[in-house]
Amino acid sequence: MAATKADGMPIISKLYCSSSQAVLVVRKRPHVVSGGGFVVTDCSQKVVFRVDGCGVIGSEGELKLRDSSGEALLLIRRKGGMVQALSIHRKWKGYTFDYEGSQKPVFRLKEPNYSCLVRSNAIRISTEPRRSNKDWDFEIKGYFPDRSCSIVDHLGNIVAQIGVNEEVNQLMANKDLYHVAVNPGVDQVFIFGVIAVLDYIYGESTRC
């Protein structure tokens, strides 16, 4: 995959926007031992992020992304209520925290009601502040459970690609281990926040 330079605008933090392409590894955690979720490591096997799902948090439809020291960087919630139940879309909202601990919305993810079974239906994300004149800023291309998909911006540029190395694919048919290539200038916290939601949508490690 060619490393296309992004626009350099961080969504959560410029501290997690690398000047070069970053290839990170996701390893799912078993529910029985650690309550599920997944760990993200770099090429040196150093932990970069940890994602806690409802098995850890104890609240369905809620995810938390932490840094290597355990500090929460991102809280992600699935919207509920009667209006949401009647909507044709399921919606998620991602929040970061300010210095006083208040929550600040940073992105919204919209998925079709039956997107788990229909591969052609797009999953789209909008950020705050907005980046385009469309009603979305990023889109998922491909099918996450196959570990063959990309996150693209509103211009069609790939900002991150999710895949499985051939060697890993031969050893682990259940795809508990996969890599994510994040292009230069792209906010890695945002990327793995989106991946956490995809993991939940398709009933994987973050879901109870």
Summed up:
This protein is of the alpha+beta class and 208 residues long. 16% of the residues lie in helices and 38% in strands.
Layout of helices and strands:
Layout: E1 22-28, H1 31-34, E2 38-41, E3 47-52, H2 54-57, E4 62-67, E5 72-78, H3 82-86, E6 89-97, E7 103-112, E8 123-127, E9 138-143, E10 148-153, E11 158-163, H4 166-171, E12 177-182, H5 188-201
Give a written overview of the molecule.
With about 210 residues, the protein is an alpha+beta fold. It has a domain at about 20-105 and about 160-200: Beta Barrel (Porin). It has helices spanning about 30-35, 55, 80-85, 165-170, 190-200, and strands at about 20-30, 40, 45-50, 60-65, 70-80, 90-95, 105-110, 125, 140-145, 150-155, 160-165, 175-180. A 12-stranded antiparallel barrel has the order 1-2-3-4-5-6-7-8-9-10-11-12. Strand 9 and strand 10 (about 150-155) form a beta hairpin. It is globular, with a radius of gyration of 16 Å. The termini are far apart. Residues about 80-85 have low confidence and may be disordered.
